[in-house]
Amino acid sequence: SALSLVVLDEVDSTNAEVLRQVADGVSGVPVAIADCQTAGRGRRGRVWSSPRGQNLYLSIGLTFHGGFSVLDGLSLVLGVAVANALETLGASDIGLKWPNDIFLPSGKLGGILIELQGELQEGVVQVIAGIGINVHMAEAEEVDQPWSSLGNASPGIDWSRNAIAGNIITAVLDAAHQFSENGFPDFHAPWQRRDIFAGMPLEARNGELHGTGEGIDEAGNYLLRTEQGVVPVRAGEISLRVV
Ligand code: BTN
């Protein structure tokens, strides 16, 4: 269906903006883009650094049918879609850090924050997919982890935020449709190819679990090869980190 696209000079959070649009009963697929955010949010309650004019802050409202369980794997699906969209524009070596950080070899390039609006009617689930991509972020920007940007990694490309937004919106809507129709299996191999944890020494569950990154299973859980065998780690359960 048609997009209901708003482009804002400034907003608290584009995710919050799309949530408001959905609450107001907007027709079409709600999409919000902003030049800067005053209360950009990241996963796990973190702040998402959102300086003016330098990056992409984009949120898309997606509707799924079949209850919350159909969302398993969605964050991985969106990571694949965003990575493919950026490579279509000339980026290379886009990796994914489970469950859905967008990485370059030099650091974190972007992130995806999925928020649930809830069940509108029986079985109809509304999701807000918020995507932040560092495009031309100034070196001085203070972020709590090593970061990179498209401009840093591929300075030869004239990165246009409009082109990036257009490609990502199309890729996300196509991927969401394919995921609704066929489920997660189509995205398993594309995600594995980009796994930055593969073969790395990892820990989970606050250090109670140690192992080597083995990729994902058919449901999108991350697999750790431990001394006790292969153990799946569920998305949202606990963050994985390299040790
Ligand atoms: C993460 O923690 O890695 C997820 C970051 C998601 C940031 C994007 S920017 C657009 C949208 N609006 C927000 O407030 N957050 C997301």
From TrEMBL:
EC number per UniProt: 6.3.4.15
Record carries keyword ATP-binding: yes
Binding site for biotin: S13, T14, N15, Q37, R41, G42, R43, K108
Single biological process term from Gene Ontology: regulation of DNA-templated transcription
GO molecular function: ATP binding; biotin--[biotin carboxyl-carrier protein] ligase activity; DNA binding
Catalytic activity: biotin + L-lysyl-[protein] + ATP = N(6)-biotinyl-L-lysyl-[protein] + AMP + diphosphate + H(+)
GO cellular component, one term: cytoplasm
Superkingdom classification of source: Bacteria
Keyword Repressor annotated: yes
Boundaries of every BPL/LPL catalytic domain copy: 1-180
UniProt keyword list: ATP-binding, Biotin, DNA-binding, Ligase, Nucleotide-binding, Repressor, Transcription, Transcription regulation
Summary of the function given for this chain in its UniProt record: Acts both as a biotin--[acetyl-CoA-carboxylase] ligase and a biotin-operon repressor. In the presence of ATP, BirA activates biotin to form the BirA-biotinyl-5'-adenylate (BirA-bio-5'-AMP or holoBirA) complex. HoloBirA can either transfer the biotinyl moiety to the biotin carboxyl carrier protein (BCCP) subunit of acetyl-CoA carboxylase, or bind to the biotin operator site and inhibit transcription of the operon.
Entry's family note: Belongs to the biotin--protein ligase family.
Protein name: Bifunctional ligase/repressor BirA
Organism from which the protein derives: Marinobacter similis
Gene this protein is translated from: birA
